[in-house]
Amino acid sequence: MRRVVIILSLCGAGALIALAVLPWWLSPVLRRVGHRWGADFARYERVGYSRFALRDVIVTQGNVQVRVDRAETETPLLWAWHHWTGRPAAIIASAWRVEVKPGESPARASGKRGAMPLRSVLFKVAAALDRWVPQAEIGAGVVVWPGGELRIGSGQWQQRSLTVHSLRSGTREAEVQVTFAKNDELHLKAGPVDDAPWQLTLTSVGEEITGQLQAWEQRAPITARFAEQGWMPAALDVRA
């Protein structure tokens, strides 16, 4: 009798583990949780027994709307296990679009605008991503706002570093890597997507920016200092 109880207990535990791990129950839960955060999706798909994908994801927050054709990741328990053991799995997103519609942004409503407020926001976003989405891969996408847009060929996010392939603004195009170090340093590297002989490296520490632009084997050191608000530097020195 004791063996029967042990066997039944093990079977029951295995059934509970399978129910928690297998992604059959995720669709209604994800839809309900997503609605609380302004997110919705058209279709849920199982990818084997350990991953799932969402089709036509739409997230709306204020005057910003994000659309992703397809997003794929691990089931919640596997994701949590890999996250806690320091082996996070990548979240993979295909074609996407971010649209900023006309309206008052939180930064504008608070009266804080410029390079330094934007820097603070970017570090907060990077910290949140490092905690909850430590690794991600994105396909081609575009960020559109009134009067302009940025196009991205593809990108990877890992270890607080964002690498963007083919960042295009108008007729200008570059390969860009931005790293948000935990000591409050921001490092930026930009280079050509073709064989053009130029490279830009910048380091931002607080209100100070230092770096250099190298083109045709010539170096131009750059130093700049920004005020608490405003997009133009309060001081700028370029030696070429």
Walk me through this protein's architecture:
The protein is an alpha+beta fold and 240 residues long. The protein is 26% helix and 46% strand. The protein is built from five helices and 16 strands. It has helices at residues 2-21, 26-36, 76-84, 106-109, 115-132; strands at 39-40, 43-47, 51-61, 64-74, 91-93, 96-100, 135-138, 141-145, 148-158, 161-169, 172-180, 185-191, 198-205, 208-215, 218-225, 235-238. A six-stranded mixed barrel has the order 4-5-7-9-8-6. A hairpin with a 2-residue loop joins β9 and β10. The longest helix has 20 residues, at 2-21. The chain is elongated. The N and C termini lie far apart (87 Å).
Give structural attributes.
six-stranded mixed beta barrel; about 240 residues; disordered N terminus; alpha+beta; about 25% helix; 5 helices
Q: What is the succession of H and E elements? A: HHEEEEHEEHHEEEEEEEEEE
Any idea what the radius of gyration is?
23 Å
Portion of residues in beta strands equals: over 45%
The oligomeric state is: single chain
How would a textbook summarize the main sheet?
6 strands, mixed, barrel
- The order of strands across the largest sheet is 4-5-7-9-8-6
**First-residue to last-residue Cα separation:** 87 Å
The count of helical stretches stands at 5
Number of strands: 16
Uncertain segments of ≥5 residues (pLDDT<50)?
1-22
Gross morphology: elongated
Structure class: alpha+beta
User: What's the overall average pLDDT, rounded?
Assistant: 80
The helical percent reads: 25-40%
